[in-house]
Amino acid sequence: MKKGIAASSGYAIGRVFLKVNEQIVIAKKTEIDKEEEKRRLEEAIEKSRQQLLEIKERTASEIGEGEAEVFESHLMILDDPEFIGAAMQNIESEQLNAEIAVNTVMDMYLDMFSDMEDEYMRERAADLRDVKDRLLRNLTGSIYASLDNLEDNTVVVAHDLTPSDTAQLDKNKVIGFLTDIGGRTSHSAIMARTLEIPAVVGIEDITLSVKTGDIVIVDGVAGKVIINPDKETIKIYEKKKLELQKEKLELKKLANTKTVTKAGKEVIVAGNIGAPQDVHKVIENGGEGIGLFRTEFLYMDRGELPSEEEQYEAYKYVAEKMEGKPVVIRTLDIGGDKKLSYLPLQVEMNPFLGYRAIRLCLDRQDIFKTQLRAILRASAHGRIQIMFPMISSLEETIKAKDVLKECMKELSSEGKSYNENIEIGIMIEIPAAAIIADELAKHVDFFSIGTNDLIQYTVAVDRMNESVSYLYNPMHPAVLRLIRMAIDAAHKEGKWCGMCGEMAGDEEAITTLLEYGLDEFSMSASSILKARQIIINN
Ligand code: PEP
Ligand code: MG
């Protein structure tokens, strides 16, 4: 048995798929047969081509043509004489073996690309790196662990899962996941809760403790894993699973009730989503709105930025499905632990304190405006509210609102409809914002407290780091004071205050938050009914 951090509740009994990427080791041969090396390179190119064609076709049919385009770029690199021709040339003139020849040429271009000012060329560097890895893997025979073809009842075990890995998981096959690193509020944990997949993270050495094919029990309630359990233990867990299902059925009875405390205060219990389709789980669980749409997931697992039209369709879809209930769309929050392969950013010492979210959007107004226009246009189809993440100052708030106003003007002159009175809110997730909340409240319609970040910045505890997770405490008095300040400041200006960090669904915190006067609690769909039960019994 191994202990970790309970990241997503529930039990799963399944077979391990160990996702470890074997390191590619390349060595220089002292004596080479040039013809043989050229033949090896040609063989690796052909193998890579076949793999890419297959992935491209599968992506196009299962996800979409747009998403498949990235693989077309990879295929083009394979045919580009600048790269491949030069590698062949290296074998011939420099007497290099195939893997060193590929590595030398590709690295030279990668260095060149990453120094370039041109954004497009820098983005191509990510493609080139992928193709280089694929060629080297095919040349050296090292294995690339892929999540594409999983068996039924799979428990994915990995050192870490990036948010884009998690987004790719086949929800019909994956019944649980376990990782070496991560905390309760790392984005892969949040995704697991959204998908209602039991998960335990931060188990430190789980990837060294299991192998593909092992049977494991994922106990997402207690945060533990049992490896190759005996029959008796399996029986116990099957019973626990049944009991949990019964409890869920009982909670379902609360799906259509309002959330009113015993004292008569009505609050909203809403759901957090990452993909438009997640809205269905929120509706099933009786969510009274969407308190956070993490739009960055629309930007992941694809080859380029999503267009205005694509985003408009996604936002409109959610607004329409919610049938007039509020939908808070948060603008792009990329950076930190969320990265885009086609938008390479500088390597930063402290990505969570770096070029992230609103900072990036105010700098890249081309990206920002495309999104704002899409959100505004969708606001004609439901009760959409807009929210800016990572606000640390009044200046940023005003600047973001100015860009929004510009987009409104553009749309008006184009004769496109949108809600001119759209509610504008900000996230309170940086201590500075909580401290100046009285000022900020004068300029916005609502706040939503992002405790996932607020806690990490207040207590100086990386939300991804399991070795300091014992300090990551939502009930730390400093955190509670900041929360209270934000709620009071909003109320003083007649504005409402919600919370969309994981603390909103934390069974231990709800009573305190109610006491502070929080108006809206937004959480993973799977926590909604339990939270409602606690609130109505309060
Ligand atoms: C938060 O920080 O609490 C939040 C809701 O945003 P995210 O988890 O996406 O950073
Ligand atoms: Mg945040």
TrEMBL record:
Residues 27-58 form a coiled coil. GO terms for biological process: phosphoenolpyruvate-dependent sugar phosphotransferase system. The active site is at 187 (tele-phosphohistidine intermediate), 500 (proton donor). It is found in: Cytoplasm. Keywords: Coiled coil, Cytoplasm, Kinase, Magnesium, Metal-binding, Phosphotransferase system, Pyruvate, Sugar transport, Transferase, Transport. Mg(2+) binds at residues 429, 453. Residues 3-124 form the Phosphotransferase system enzyme I N-terminal domain. It is an enzyme of class 2 (transferase). Residues 250-535 form the PEP-utilising enzyme C-terminal domain. One of its GO terms (molecular function) is phosphoenolpyruvate-protein phosphotransferase activity. Its EC number is 2.7.3.9. PROSITE patterns: PEP_ENZYMES_2, PEP_ENZYMES_PHOS_SITE. It catalyses: L-histidyl-[protein] + phosphoenolpyruvate = N(pros)-phospho-L-histidyl-[protein] + pyruvate. The keyword Metal-binding applies. Phosphoenolpyruvate binds at residues 294, 330, 452-453, 463. Its cofactor is Mg(2+). GO terms for cellular component: cytoplasm. Residues 151-223 form the PEP-utilising enzyme mobile domain. General (non sugar-specific) component of the phosphoenolpyruvate-dependent sugar phosphotransferase system (sugar PTS). This major carbohydrate active-transport system catalyzes the phosphorylation of incoming sugar substrates concomitantly with their translocation across the cell membrane. Enzyme I transfers the phosphoryl group from phosphoenolpyruvate (PEP) to the phosphoryl carrier protein (HPr). NCBIfam families: PTS_I_fam. Belongs to the PEP-utilizing enzyme family. This is Phosphoenolpyruvate-protein phosphotransferase. The lineage of its organism: Bacteria, Bacillati, Bacillota, Clostridia, Eubacteriales.
